[in-house]
Amino acid sequence: QVQLVESGGGVVQPGESLRLSCAASGFTFTTCAMHWVRQAPDKGPEWLASVWSDGTRKFYVDSMKGRFTISRDDSKNMLYAQMDGLRPEDTAVYYCAKGGRIGTFYFDLWGQGTLVTVSS
Amino acid sequence: QTVVTQEPSFSVSPGGTLTLTCGLSSGSVSSKSYPSWYQQTPGQAPRTLIYNTNSRSSGVPDRFSGSILGNKAALTITGAQADDESDYYCVLYVGSGIWVFGGGTKVTVL
Q: What is the pLDDT of residue B1?
């Protein structure tokens, strides 16, 4: 079954860190770019970060640079997001998404999301 | 900062046709922006509809089509149905590994 399953969300206090995971299955993970997208309550989605299939090229939205690190473990078909210095405005559902085939630039498979709540 | 613009809301009658647009605050959208479109209902993850301007994702009915209209990307829904009532988001690839979502259009079928 082709799917992405996120985990690791929860309630944290401002300034704390959190690591999100995304388990991929049913497709050749090693050939795919992978992404993190978040959606704050009652807001539209926001692209956060991408990691190319080679694992070395990583890109981030400006607002998250220095606080968000995307990584992948191809041996485990896993995508990760390390989030540091969390702020209340980081409260959102965090989705991992699979990139389309080479030469396309879109998100062709989405996980169900994991909720991160930053609150004191 | 790149801002992707969409109509905030749109209403359509059942069976009708609507065209949603996706523009840039400065500049034009072209196929080189690789526009894609996503449908989302409350509490659900986005669903991919269109990619590379006009390619339908697997399983998407041909009532949904994408195009470039003037200096904007467009999503046209023909024969609107009740379950098309959703939020629709466009995404543009702005280069250098960066994507930007539009603010979304809330579509009401009534």
A: 85
